[in-house]
Design brief:
globular; alpha/beta; 10 helices; four-stranded antiparallel β-sheet; Rossmann fold; 10 strands; six-stranded mixed β-sheet; 257 residues
Length: 257
């Protein structure tokens, strides 16, 4: 689609005899909140892993800002301005909240030498990284907990800390994998407001989420997967009444994703 920030074209990925992504194609427009939903086993997290470089599809293309991503390592993809969170929280539990976010602030090879030898340039880099990390913590509402050890945070705040670490890299595209998992409704509604603020700051958001109330209220576009195939795409109102979506969600028991 013309003007899209992310284009998935005929993506196919097989694990042994299991087809995880089945010639999947869709596009994400800039500065949108685009949800990807589907029953367990539909390929949602597999899709995010393919976009982020953890999986290499058998065929098809992924274009982000004109860059072809298939086959590139995750660290190279991240340099294009793509960051993500994970379904399973991945924090440095023994580090402070602030230190966790500072790990996302990039240090080039030359700067690494300055850090090792504690030069004036290194101290300036640390100051800038601290400022950037604090801004990200303030954005998610965790600035007051900056000195707390990450593992001591309640579960919902650990989720927010992962998001802070992702936005500290100034992404163009943010992938959120089940960010509301384990949250109560109040916490999920606060998360929804946060995701909107991130979008309003100029970041495109792709969100995989099972909380349908959150998805329907926050998304401009929704892509629905079933067994690795796209079965519907459109606005929340369009998706809500699509017969294929109803069949996928109300059909017989599913395999786990």
């Amino acid at each position: 689609m013309t003007g899209a920030i992310l284009s998935i074209d005929q993506l196919f990925l097989r694990f042994g005899g299991v087809v995880a992504l089945n010639h999947l194609s869709f596009s994400v427009m800039p500065h949108a909140i685009h949800a990807v939903i589907g029953p367990n086993g539909s390929g949602k997290t597999t899709l995010l892993n393919s976009i982020g470089g953890a999986y290499v599809p058998n065929s098809g293309t992924i274009s982000f800002h004109g860059n072809q991503l298939v086959g590139l390592p995750p660290q190279r993809i991240a340099r294009f301005g793509l960051t993500r969170t994970f379904q399973t929280i991945r924090l440095f539990n023994s580090l402070s909240v602030l230190e966790n976010v500072m790990t996302a602030c990039p240090v080039d090879g030359a700067m690494f030498l300055h850090v090792v030898f504690d030069t004036k340039r290194a101290r300036e880099a640390e100051r800038l990284a601290t400022e950037k990390a604090m801004a990200a913590l303030k954005q998610v509402g965790l600035d007051a907990f900056k000195d707390q050890v990450a593992s001591s945070l309640p579960y919902a705040r650990q989720r927010l800390l992962e998001i802070a670490r992702a936005v500290a890299r100034d992404p163009k595209l943010l992938l959120l994998d089940e960010p509301a998992a384990g949250m109560n409704m109040t916490e999920a509604m606060e998360l929804m407001a946060l995701v909107r603020r991130i979008r309003d700051s100029g970041v495109t958001v792709v969100i995989v989420e099972h909380n349908m109330r959150l998805v329907m209220e926050i998304s401009e576009q929704i892509t629905v997967l079933d067994f690795g195939k796209k079965i519907a795409q459109g606005s929340p109102a369009e998706v809500r009444r699509d017969p294929e979506v109803l069949r996928a969600y109300l059909g017989r028991g599913r395999r786990n994703a």
